[in-house]
Fold:
Amino acid sequence: MDNRLLLSGEVTEVADLRYTPAGIPLLAFTLKHVSQQSEAGMKRQTECEVPVVAMAQLAEQAKTLKPGNRIRVAGFLNRGSRNSRQLKLHINELEIIEKG
Structure:
């Protein structure tokens, strides 16, 4: 089964670095994406804000992110928690395009 998402945008919020009960670094942030996409032969303006989770070494790398940074991430979608319906993007790739 495929579950892979590639998204670029601007960081709008960055939470404090925290640790899981197993001691793994975890950093949550929000990524705002704005673009124009083609759908049914027509141009469509798209905009969304996506909650993102970085763990382990990516959390350590992401802790330098600031609101206004433009980044590209890749990862997979998962529920925020067992009882949640909200999706979060768990990343396994992070590229800083431009520091804001």
Notes: The helical segments are 57-62. Residues 57-62 form the longest helix (6 residues). Strands lie at 5-14, 18-19, 25-39, 42-55, 70-79, 87-98. Residues 5-98 form a domain with the OB fold (Dihydrolipoamide Acetyltransferase, E2P) fold (CATH 2.40.50.140).
